[in-house]
Amino acid sequence: MSVAWSIARRELRGGLRGFRVFLACLALGVAAIAAVGSVRSSIQAGIEEQGATLLGGDAAIELTYRRAPAETRDYLETIAEEVGEVIDFRSMARLPEADDSALTQVKAVDGTWPIYGTPELDPPMSIGAALGQVDGLPGAVMAPLLADRLQLSPGDTFMLGAQEFRLAARLVSAPDDGSGGFDFGPPTVVRIDALAESGLIAQGTLFDSEYRLRLPPGTDLAALEGEVTDTLSDLAPRWRDARNGAPGVSEFVDRLGSFLVLVGLAGLAVGGVGISAAVRAYLDEKTEVIATLKTLGAGRSTIFAVYAFQIGVLAAIGIVLGLVLGGLIPVVFGQVISAALPIPADIALRPGPLAEAALYGVIAAALFTLWPLAKTERVRAAALFRDGGTPEAWPRPLYVILTGALLALLVGAAAIFSGMAEIALWSAFGIFVAFLLLVAAGRLVRAISRRLARTRALRGRPMLRMALSSVGGPGNEAASVVLSLGLGLSVLAAVGQVDTNLRGAIQRELPDIAPSFFVVDIQPDQIEAVRERVEGDPLVERMDSAPMLRGMITQINGRPAREVAGDHWIVEGDRGVTYAAELPERTEITAGEWWGAEYDGPPQISFVAEEAAEIGLEIGDTMTVNILGREITGELASFRNVDFSTAAMNFTITMNPSALSGAPHSWLATIYAEPEAEAELMRDITRSYPNITMISVRDAIGRATDLLGTIAAAITYGALITLVTGAVVLVGAAAAGERARTYEAAVLKTLGAPRARILGEFALRSAILGLSAGLVAVFAGGMAGWAISTFVMETTFVFEPVSAIAIVLGGVLVTLLAGLAFAWRPLAARPAQVLRARE
């Protein structure tokens, strides 16, 4: 080993010639993974450090559709230093003397809000002054977007329900903005007491009450969670605490970051092609050195060690460069990243993500260099001297096994660190299949080009024949270009197809079948009047309505629901509950029977069929649902088909009417109307019944589409890194072939070919390779997009031709530019100098 290290060290003194592509590919792949991981870790650190501020307290207890009774408030006062109440619901903000209105997410607070942090208002003032009364009108603050939508300025008045408010200031930001999930409307903050006459907070209306606690320092949050949930079990509270103050944001960032790491691994795989090609080219140049060492008695293990040492040192340099680049990018662009996030991010160097990226880099470098390095052991010195190159030969079985082990290690690390094992494994499978397709495509392109070059149809077209002969001739240019560029374009094509299909699922499918409005908080004494107004409009197709309650599934067959259903979404939080005597229209029973219209026995439940099958429920099982603190246990009498993708009025749980007799509730309705009728419907209903909230499905779809656009943009940026890495490999392949093109150009010039024809042949050759890579990428990317859309996103897949055409054209353009960039020096070389130097 000491001899091998001495030889390796001396050869390294020659510099990095031949290894620039190696270093660039490895550094880019590691940098992408390190940068994404660092941003994700910084966001998570910000959530952990600012958890109490984001949550609005050290802990929070949430109740659905009811406020805590006095004895519950007294109990909370005994365990906390301070208790604050926040009531959250949707309503319509209206102008008193105009027909204009807009949906808003109302946050009604008491005098303790915010327990932590300070809201930013415009103009600046304290929140107490902003929400106080002036001339008998309570104050309010609202998001600038909503104020602009209603053309309100500080001092103007607006209505929430039956209560008039004075806009005191614009709410630029609130410390607990990041704790919630997806809101349908911009926020408005008012005092709870100011809503007493609004008619918006009553039994049966849709609102959540949250009790935020300032706890004594050193409180054991896990122990307190168990105590509170046990003590208040009859209220079915939801507990959150500062350990994860913004769970929805945290989970979203974690999943998006994990997905981007997988995209980074795809980039590393593309870079692996360049790494392997660079090592192979380097060893080809070292043929005479290897032959000499073998002639002097060096064993195959010594030869392997010499170049393993060299490649190891260079790999370490590439990994360090990638870590420096990936660690500095988030720091340099920290302010830009923080400004784009709804929550604080502690942007800093994070050792964990850097270590993860370094691990990926080490495994990838070993994986892609082992094969070409090990093949030198199979070759005799005499063969090396005669052939002047490294012939094709499989390495020993040991190295084949090691290659498989390294591949399994890389995929396993991705599965563990991404937190998305199933997606990581399928992604690895997809990359592997794309890799095989592209290898086969490279060989097929060579074979087809070689055959076409010999056909009679191309006689008289010397430029095309030369281009096809060059593509089909000896060398690895075709395989390298199709593989490296094709893999990068495949990732980009898959992202493009998924993005288009996600947007299409919302924009193409829902508008044809979705209702115009969801109408909530209709009181029982208002439903008939609302139905009369809606159904009397000739532009309204139909109105569906049903009683609306919310309940949490607490037990299944007498066992805790989570114990039976695990982490299934059906037992996460509360679900929609309704009652009906007769089977509703357009309802399909898949198993069991519907109770009769006259049924008045024990509680019966009709449950969603697909979720029942996933959990393993059967007809006759029992289910306990907590509704407004009351435990109702019913028998599963039937299963129903429910398609949640239609945006229609669908309920997870339907019960017989007598099971819910006496439970306070409101009504929910969906209205299907022509677009030209929507404005008048909203105006008439909200003016006649200020407590009713109408949610425009069209606006909700727009907000969801914008959110998906942001996600798709982030993923596309990650995929572009893969394409950049592929471009680096492409440039390396073009640079490696420059010597051959110089000799070719010299021969053609000697035979009388003008420069324009030679340049055209070079350009045509590049275009053929780019077209081949683009076509294969469209096929592989389309298959990957279909798989992701169908099995991961669970949306209908429709092939999108525009992005596919862009991918093909992009492949042609990139290879054309790379080929032309390395064509000028061959064209400028003098034939006499080139040919005199060759045998």
Automatic annotation (TrEMBL):
**Protein name per UniProt:** FtsX-like permease family protein
| A Pfam entry, by short name | FtsX
Where does the protein end up? Cell membrane
Q: Does the keyword Transcription regulation apply?
A: no
Residue ranges annotated for the ABC3 transporter permease C-terminal domain, each copy included: 263-375, 719-826
The record's section on InterPro entries has: ABC3_permease_C, Membrane_comp_ABC_pdt
A cellular component term, taken from the record's GO annotations: plasma membrane
Keyword field: Cell membrane, Membrane, Transmembrane, Transmembrane helix
Q: Identify the taxonomic lineage of the organism of origin.
A: Bacteria, Pseudomonadati, Pseudomonadota, Alphaproteobacteria, Rhodobacterales
